[in-house]
Design goal:
This protein is of the alpha/beta class and about 475 residues long. It contains 17 helices and 13 strands.
């Protein structure tokens, strides 16, 4: 049988719909690879093999009966353990929630299943999804398949590792501060943070989220190909009554000016020389494709957006977050929350009001900028992927790592979609660049991302280093 990983999502689904490949065979091949490769990675931490095989057999029977399944017909996908999936624990990487069994699917997953996707496993994250590293007491540590000394990223580190290792074509991730984009960057794959409201998400098992996550957290896809992201986004998206922000916005819009702002040092950070070289390579690829790339004289503020995002996520409700982390006893969660404890102590209703007012002003400024130049090319991170568990080295390390992540952390507050595109792997170290587009214009970022992918190369499936 053709190796499923040799095919794009589009080609794989078409082969299954046409009968050239059968869903049970594709699912079995993927599960076989998971059984061989995942023990070295611990990317998938909840086994869905029995359900996956049964779903693939049912899909195959429908196809043979003449039904036409959707765009993800028989495509193997993974789901992060932060999301409800019927019959599985929504642990969010904690022992506290190990028995929190979902009785329904999160709406994005319901949409993916309606398009024929087959869930082959559930992927790891750090406890409470707080860190840039994916390790916890409930599921253990996830390894970067390119280099075990490096983090696979967080919080969707299991998703990034699984995608790079060919343990599913599309991985679900979540992103409130870079948790899709950073694992994609660290694992050498592609990752898309959609516009808030694009992909509906709600966990019946956990109920409603605080104000910061409601405004800034999104679900979205990771994949090895940009076009796979496009199909994954389409399958996840759509209106769902459970999510108050869900919006049935069109997936594409009128052609936008092909003008790009190249921003090498957003917020005053100083990227690694290799990252600066990647940005220059990306700019050259876009120019050769007819895009107009210029370095702007000024840019709306990102550093204030970075600071406000941290407050709305970590300072708001800090005491409850800290109490839960203490009960869990997770070193990484405690290190982060203790680092921001003094800042959180100054957080009150006046600070919340100020943050929401300033957020409106920053969003307005960025939308005005993107109206004229509707794509920004900038780093994903100022540093190459961090050393595994580097945030446990003390407060100075946490401060440095979070400052390096400013290009990712600032974007959620602004309500903008952003795409991490792999620029390749050198000496076992992945890198990449980030594209930021206007709200609801993921299609524009994906179009540019495909240009970069053609130049950088499609990430290849990797076996653990």
């Amino acid at each position: 049988m053709t190796d499923p990983n040799s095919l794009s999502v589009r080609d794989l689904a078409e082969a299954i719909r046409s009968g050239t490949l059968r869903a049970p065979e594709v699912t079995a091949a993927t599960l076989d690879r998971i059984a061989r490769v995942n023990p070295a990675l611990n990317a998938i931490v909840q086994d869905c093999s029995s359900d996956a095989l049964a779903e693939a057999e049912a899909l195959d029977a429908r196809i043979r009966a003449g039904d036409q399944p959707g765009a993800l017909a028989g495509v193997p996908v993974t789901i992060k353990v932060i999301a409800d999936q019927t019959g599985y624990a929504t642990t969010n990487g904690t022992t506290l929630a190990r028995d929190l069994i979902a009785t329904s699917d999160s709406p994005f997953l319901r949409h993916m299943r309606a398009e024929g996707a087959i869930v082959v496993g559930r992927t790891n994250c750090p406890a409470f999804s707080y860190r840039w590293f994916s390790s916890n007491a409930q599921h253990g540590t996830t390894v970067n398949p390119h280099n075990a000394a490096l983090t696979p990223g967080g919080s969707s580190g299991g998703a990034g590792s699984a995608t790079a290792a060919g343990l599913g074509h599309i991985a679900h991730g979540t992103d409130i501060a870079g948790s899709i984009r950073y694992p994609a960057y660290a694992c050498g794959v592609q990752g898309l943070r959609p516009t808030p409201g694009r992909v509906p998400a709600f966990n019946q098992s956990g109920g409603d989220r605080p104000i910061g996550p409601q405004l800034m957290a999104v679900a979205g896809p990771l994949a090895r190909r940009v076009d796979d992201l496009r199909l994954g986004l389409a399958a996840m998206s759509g209106y769902a009554p459970e999510d108050p922000l869900s919006t049935p916005a069109p997936l594409s819009g009128p052609a936008l000016p092909r003008r790009v702002a190249l921003v090498r040092r957003p917020g005053g950070i100083e990227p690694d020389p290799r990252i600066l070289a990647d940005l220059d390579r990306a700019a050259d690829l876009l120019r050769r494709d007819g895009w107009q790339v210029e370095e702007p004289d000024s840019l709306p503020d990102l550093r204030e957006a970075f600071d406000l995002q941290i407050d709305l996520w970590l300072a708001d409700g800090h005491a409850e977050k800290l109490a839960a982390a203490q009960l869990e006893g997770d070193a990484g969660a405690l290190a982060l929350l203790n680092f921001y404890a003094d800042r959180a102590a100054r957080w009150d209703s006046a600070a919340l009001s100020h943050a929401l007012l300033r957020r409106s002003g920053l969003i307005r400024a960025w939308r005005a900028f993107l109206a004229d130049t509707p794509l920004v090319l900038m780093p994903v991170c100022a540093e190459l992927p961090f050393r595994q568990d580097e945030d446990l080295d003390g407060p100075e390390a946490i401060a440095r790592l979070w400052q390096a992540q400013l290009p990712q952390v600032a974007i959620p507050l602004l309500g903008l979609p952003a795409l991490a595109v792999s620029s390749g792997v050198e000496n076992g170290i992945p890198s990449g660049v980030q594209l930021v587009a206007p709200p609801w214009r993921e299609d524009h970022a994906l179009d540019a991302g495909e240009v970069l992918e053609r130049g950088f190369g499609i990430p290849q499936v990797v076996d653990p280093a």
